[in-house]
Amino acid sequence: MTDIQLYNTRTRRKERFEPLDPANLRMYVCGPTVYDRAHLGNARPVVTFDLLFRLLRHVYGADRVTYVRNFTDVDDKINAAALARKQAGDPRPLEELIRERTEETIGWYHADMDALGALRPSQEPRATEFIGQMIAMIGDLIEKGHAYAVEGHVMFRVRSYEDYGALSGRSVDDMIAGARVEVAPFKEDPMDFVLWKPSDGDLPGWDSPWGRGRPGWHIECSAMSHELLGDSFDIHGGGIDLQFPHHENEIAQSCCAHPEGGFAKVWMHNEMLQVEGKKMSKSLGNFFTVRDLLEQGVPGEVIRFVFLSTHYRKPMDWTAEKAREAEATLRKWRGLVAGIEPAPSPAPEVIDALSDDLNTAGAIAALHGLAGAGDLAGLKASAGLLGLLGGKMTERGGELTADDFSEELGKFIKLRAEAKKAKDYAKADRIRDLLSRAGFSLKDTPDGTEVSIDMLRLAQFLPSSRHGEVRVYVMQPGTEEYAETVSGVRKFLRRELSALT
Ligand SMILES: Nc1ncnc2c1ncn2[C@@H]1O[C@H](COP(=O)(O)OP(=O)(O)OP(=O)(O)O)[C@@H](O)[C@H]1O
Ligand SMILES: [Zn+2]
Q1: 272 touches ligand 1 (CB under 6 Å)
Q2: From residue 456, how far is each of 289, 439, 440 by CA, in Å?
Q3: What atom of ligand 1 comes closest to residue 30's alpha carbon?
Q4: How many CA atoms lie within 13 Å of 68's alpha carbon, on the beta-carbon side?
Q5: How far apart are CA 355 and CA 373, in angstroms?
Q6: Ligand 1 pocket residue status of 282, Cβ below 6 Å
Q7: At how many degrees (to 10) do helices 425-437 and 406-421 cross?
Q8: pLDDT (tens digit, 9 = 90+) per residue, 303-335?
Q9: Whose CA is nearest to atom 28 of ligand 1?
Q10: Cα–chain-centroid distance for residue 475?
Q11: Is the pLDDT of residue 393 over 60?
């Protein structure tokens, strides 16, 4: 059995990983609050823990690893986003706007993370589906003296848990000094944090022994991980920004509610994606989204490769130069392995590197070694373990060109020219607009009208879900999607043509 070493934030050293139950490995990773598109920083834990998931599946067996990553779909940021829409004049009830917002965001998240080659976790629980378990856990904490109800709130009594701060290696008093703790008159102690809070008006709320309200953020993860993974599980992950207070609070809640279990054995944290030395974050406004990059034509596989080039515990920047180098390497390797059957197993040096606390830079160096030595079957199998070179080619959009529709487009251009000549500018504009809806833009030049095609617009325009936003980047001539896209667009153009004439 391969020996896996992982750095445990809690003990602050690399440890030999020993599963609690080798037949049932369990990992929980804090997922996104679904109120907006994921920024590039949010993708870093996804790629990091996807890689760990793949490694564990390889070493222990694919059906022996359970990976849970939650969606936080009840949160004040979501409420604020929905409220903004309502204030902008949307007549629908807030509840409906909230649901629409979270559904939409989860769809975006899946599409973007799929594009990075991340496997879907085994389970993706939504907080709103586990409110009952949260209420039960909070009730239990009150009974055990670790929490108190006050003014419609339930607060966790931090001083009741002796080991509070162990994960960060700091005392409660140091943490108070360094943190922005919310002062509320009803708190027994400034460190106490919210387990439950009242909801008034049309804010989302559930009935509870403490009145109509909603859970605090931290209790969500404690309740969901307990429900799905039990009192003790192997690995808990997330970004280092969550270490305090979120993970300290999760530990306090879970260990006080279930003192018989050990909660998470290994704590793993990815470092931050930075912009000029600062964490990329929504609140600082220094972010761009995964979707922005995909739209610029950067293949998801390139984004993944750039992440993997830096060790997950080191801060990193995104640069266009890194993306260019990654793309050149991937293209070269794809050229080499085309048509080659992958070896039955990844190369030992690649497995060894990954097993050393996910030494991805070492693994990539080993891939270069395999390519250099001409071991192409080994290269293909080993790259697969890193989630690279698999499946379809992640080509830039653009294989599909306006030439594919030259017959139909020619007719539109002719009709538009005729309309202009007859001074029917409304009709000429209508033709331009309907083409632009499908992603075609027209440019008049002295030599005639040039047509260019915006792949993303085109993919979004097509109604079928097979043509989701991501697909377009993986479309190649000769594939089924390609043929479907061409015929879908052609149908639309013909229908509009016959309506015009
Ligand atoms: N710049 C970053 N680099 C790496 N990981 C990050 C970064 N920003 C957030 N994360 C991680 O992304 C995951 C999702 O976090 P969450 O949804 O709470 O982010 P957010 O609140 O939208 O982001 P922000 O911190 O920008 O407000 C968490 O695991 C978090 O640690
Ligand atoms: Zn969490």
Answers
A1: yes
A2: 15, 7, 11
A3: 29
A4: 25
A5: 23
A6: yes
A7: 160
A8: 999 999 999 999 999 999 999 999 999 989 988
A9: 239
A10: 22
A11: no
Contact indicator for 200, 208 with CB cutoff of 8 Å: no
pLDDT reported for residue 466: 40
For CA atoms 326, 117, 377, 3, the dihedral sign is positive
Task: State the distance from the centre of ligand 1 to the C-alpha of 109, rounded, in angstroms.
Answer: 13
ipTM of the shown complex? 0.98
Q: Is the pLDDT of residue 470 over 50?
A: no
Give me the DSSP letters along 410-464.
HHHHHHHHHHHHTT-HHHHHHHHHHHHHTTEEEEEETTEEEEEE-HHHHHHHS-S
Task: Tally the C-alpha atoms within 13 A of residue 263's C-alpha that lie toward its C-beta.
Answer: 22
300 lines ligand 1 (CB under 6 A): no
Instruction: Please tell me the number of the ligand nearest to residue 272's CA.
Output: 1
Q: 3-class DSSP state for residue 408? A: helix
User: Which residues, 6 or more positions from 208, have their beta carbon under 8 angstroms from its beta carbon?
Assistant: 135, 138, 196
DSSP designation for 245: I
Q: What is the pLDDT of residues 349-384, one digit of tens each?
A: 999 999 999 999 999 999 999 999 999 999 999 999
- 155: Cβ contacts below 8 Å, ≥ 6 apart: 147, 148, 186, 187, 188, 192, 193, 194, 195
- The per-residue b/e assignment along 359-370, b for 16 or more CB within 10 angstroms, e otherwise, is bbebbbebbebb
pLDDT for 473 = 38
- Compute, in angstroms, the gap from residue 377 CA to the centroid of ligand 1: 37
Higher pLDDT, 438 or 312: 312
Q: Is the CB of 481 under 6 A from ligand 1?
A: no
CA–CA gap between residue 2 and residue 388 (Å, rounded): 21
Query: How far are the Cα atoms of 407, 431, 434, 494 from residue 411, in angstroms, in the given order?
Result: 7, 11, 14, 10
Confidence of residue 460 (pLDDT cuts 50, 70, 90): low
pLDDT greater than 90 at residue 468: no
Q: What is the pLDDT of residues 261-316, one digit of tens each?
A: 999 999 999 999 999 999 999 989 999 999 989 888 889 999 999 999 999 999 99
Atom 15 in ligand 1: residue holding the nearest Cα: 32
Cα of 308 vs centre of ligand 2, distance in Å, is: 23
Query: What's the maximum distance between 2 C-alpha atoms anywhere in the chain?
Result: 85
Which of 23-37, 218-232, 422-436 bottoms out in mean pLDDT, i.e. has the lowest? 422-436
Which two tokens mark 496? Answer: 């509009």
* Closest protein CA for atom 2 of ligand 1: 41
What is the Å distance from ligand 2's center to 77 Cα? Answer: 16
Ligand 1 binding pocket includes 241 (Cβ within 6 Å) = yes
